[in-house]
Amino acid sequence: MSSEKKKSFVVYGDWAQHLELPQTVSLASNFESPPELPEELIGGLLRAGHKMLVSGSSKAGKSFFLMELCVSIAEGREWMGFPCKQGKVLYVNLEIDPASCIWRFKNIYNAYGIEPLHPDNIEIWNLRGYAIPMDKLVPKLIKRIKGRGFAAVVIDPIYKVITGDENNATDMGAFCNQFDKICTETGCSAIYCHHHSKGAQGAKRAMDRASGSGVFARDPDAHVDIIQLDTPEDLRKSLPDKSVTAWRMEFSLREFKNPQPVDFWFEYPLHRLDDEGVLSSLGAWGSPQSNLLKSSKFTTDGERRDAINSAYEFCKKHPPVTVTDMAEFLDVSERCTRDRLKNMEDEYWTKHGVVGKISDYYD
User: Fold this and answer.
1) In the chain, alpha helices (H)
2) Under 8 Å CB-to-CB from 315, ≥6 apart: which residues?
3) What is the pLDDT of residues 273-302, one digit of tens each?
4) Pair 132, 141: CB distance under 8 Å
5) Considering only CA atoms, which of 62, 136, 51 is closest in space to residue 96?
6) Could you tell me the pTM of the whole model?
7) Taking Cα atoms as reference points, which of 343, 334, 333, 332 lies closest to residue 298?
8) Which residues pair with 152 in a beta bridge?
9) Distance between CA atoms of 192 and 176, rounded to whole angstroms?
């Protein structure tokens, strides 16, 4: 074991040794009148005093994403479609130049088109160039915010303050306990940011994309993962701003039912919801859905369905209708045709290479 790792364990052990543990609680005495749940800081996602991890790939604008959340909490407005309770936020800036950080917040307010009624609800702690290991930072952080009515602390990004080996579950368990310490001793929520591992992430579950040990995804009460969508060429050409990118937000929640994934655009400096459903049929980079779309000249679910229907009606003139004949009509592979038919199994059946339409037999 390295001296740095030993030192980290000593510091954590000292804190744990002096921690007074709570008493046991009788379920029977609390069954009829259970304690009130903490209020929701982010409606349907995060309760007050709980932990949330935001993970994502590079170029996702994660810092802008978190700054937008800070503004939404400070002003008591929606963030990516989720209502936020108004409160004070400390943004711990570990990566951005201090002047740039202020300008980013200012640009976000301007892009939202809202008057900054409560900018005093956002405090910034600029630690670029002053980052110290998390076990050293937390006591200073607690001292700075305790008793000052903060609703949340946002730490961006955590790779700057990680102690130990991020691929080691024991090390990361001790590291993540530092966020519990923040929540327990201050009563505010801890929101922190981490990056994806290298390579395409589309084939992975959302909770498996964060770099390092799986502890990162299992530990927080709410895990919000953002991944880039593979946008077809014709869609990119149709966008007025060619720098715009498409993304999807997926959830792993402990306190709430997981919401449906949320699609959005990153239009500098804001992330904007895809209210028109343009992105709903797209897959993430490296996902099977994305690979299927790449092999097709059709770009939307509706167009692919229309194409299958047209191919079936044409081939029906010379029965039996086969996957081979439909693939030839569509000018795609038989495997691609089978995948599309499987996505329309409520309308079509296939058996031994022959295709039939369910309604033809039950009309």
Assistant:
1) 3-17, 27-31, 62-75, 98-112, 134-145, 169-186, 215-218, 233-238, 288-294, 301-315, 323-330, 334-343, 358-362
2) 321, 322, 325, 326, 329, 355
3) 999 888 988 888 655 555 555 554 445 778
4) no
5) 62
6) 0.74
7) 332
8) 89, 189
9) 11
